[in-house]
Each structure stands twice: as structure tokens, then as C-alpha cells.
Q: What sequence folds into this?
């Protein structure tokens, strides 16, 4: 039968092993989130540029505004 000190050491080693596995898992999650955030930033920049183009394209001079055909 292991002594109290040996039992504590085994318990600590077991906890350390679980913590190391958890740190590795969390690191993987963070890396995946970083990739997702980078992809979303690119998409937002693209959408912002497209929106800007639409806004600039829809702003014209009042002379360009023609009355609807039913007038």
C-alpha cells in the first residue's frame, strides 16, 4: 500500500497530466478562433468596401435624377 506521500505525489502527477491536456485543448481552440477572426475581418473589410462602392454609386447630382415615367 502506498504511503500518504506517494498517494499525494500520484494525485499531483495525475492532476498535472489533466491540466497539460486541458492547456493543449484550449490552445487548439484559441488557434481555431484566431483563424476564424482573421477570416471574418477579411469578410468585413470586403463588405465595407462593397457598401462604400454602392453608397458612392447611388449618390449622383440632382440633374441626374429624372422623374419617374408616370409623370
A:
Amino acid at each position: 500500500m502506498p504511503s500518504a506521500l506517494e498517494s499525494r505525489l500520484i494525485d499531483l502527477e495525475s492532476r498535472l497530466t489533466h491540466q497539460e491536456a486541458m492547456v493543449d485543448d484550449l490552445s487548439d481552440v484559441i488557434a481555431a478562433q484566431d483563424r476564424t477572426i482573421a477570416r471574418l475581418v477579411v469578410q468585413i473589410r470586403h463588405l465595407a468596401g462593397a457598401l462604400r462602392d454602392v453608397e458612392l454609386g447611388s449618390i449622383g447630382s440632382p440633374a441626374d435624377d429624372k422623374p419617374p415615367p408616370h409623370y
Summary: Helices lie at 4-58.
